[in-house]
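hiii so um. not sure if this is the right channel but i have a protein structure encoded as tokens and i wanna go backwards to a sequence. like what aa goes where. can anyone help
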């Protein structure tokens, strides 16, 4: 429209529209994508969401800076495009991304830095891809985590150390015929779940 938005503007689109965001930096107080809508983020863009953020329908490659109220709702998917990557960073202390029951987080290449990931739905790491947990990150699973092919979830060195917990009722499923029974859930020549400390109170399945 040729009008520069202000910090209080609200932009609305039809619920099923596909939006493509290119280049630069974007800071918003809230983010909500209606079911059936989608937002594709181009490589290099930085999106900071300081308030409530429904990330279902987001895909692409970008830096996402989130607060304590980011989530993927049931029936929705947060996805990283093949060959792309997404970095999750905290806007404030206590930043959290919750994949709610019925929601999906599909990973090709994701780095998480200081954001708590709470998975109540399905978190899938695609074959030969990686979910990297930087210092200060935690992963809590009461849903399903699937590592396909030679997929990897690993903690990077540094303080405070990244942690992972599979809660009662949680399921971690890993591809690979060779299992090394380490506390980290390490595997030989297959998928790898390599986070220490790792607490498993649920089910850890090698297929």
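sure thing!! here u go:
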């Amino acid at each position: 429209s040729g009008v520069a938005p202000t910090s209080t503007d609200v932009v609305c689109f039809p619920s099923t529209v596909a939006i493509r965001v290119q280049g630069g930096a974007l800071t918003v107080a809230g983010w909500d994508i209606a079911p059936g809508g989608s937002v594709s983020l181009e490589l290099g863009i930085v999106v900071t969401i300081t308030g409530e953020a429904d990330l279902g329908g987001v895909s692409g490659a970008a830096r996402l800076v989130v607060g304590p109220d980011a989530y993927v709702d049931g029936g929705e998917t947060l996805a990283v495009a093949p060959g792309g990557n997404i970095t999750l960073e905290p806007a404030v202390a206590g930043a959290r991304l919750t994949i709610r029951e019925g929601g999906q987080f599909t990973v090709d290449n994701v780095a998480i830095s200081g954001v708590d990931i709470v998975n109540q739905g399905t978190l899938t790491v695609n074959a030969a891809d990686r979910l990297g947990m930087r210092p200060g990150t935690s992963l809590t699973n009461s849903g399903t985590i699937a590592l396909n092919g030679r997929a990897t979830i690993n903690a990077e060195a540094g303080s405070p150390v990244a942690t992972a917990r599979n809660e009662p009722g949680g399921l971690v499923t890993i591809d690979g015929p060779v299992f090394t029974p380490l506390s980290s859930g390490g595997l030989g020549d297959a998928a790898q779940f390599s986070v220490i400390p790792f607490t498993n109170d649920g089910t850890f399945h090698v297929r």
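oh and The two ends are 54 Å apart (CA to CA).
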